DUF202 domain-containing protein (Rhizophagus clarus), 123 residues
Amino acid sequence: MATPEFTQLKSLSLSDAELVEIRQRTFEGAYWRTCLSSFGFALIILRIFEKDFYGIGLIFIAFGGAMLTIAALRRRNNLDIFDKNKPFVTSGGYVLLTSVVALFTYLALLTLIFRLDEPKIKS
């Protein structure tokens, strides 16, 4: 519960349940925003750059798909967060899964970047 001093400093009075809901939607939205930005970046790469970069675009599509899956799983499993009969479980598993997916994505991107041929300059 918020202290009286803190409540007086706030410009917007929200209950604790409303604060939890706002924070939940904001954090959950981070997965969706990451997924959409990854898909958008992949679309830019696939539409603008040459065929040499298609692998990089496909990696971003795979990353976006993985983030979409993680977001859907997290949303499905967090519907019962206010059920008093179930113990509270943190999101550590999803954070670990996201970290592993991001690590493999970065490793795959670095591998593809280092395998790119020398730039071809047209005379």
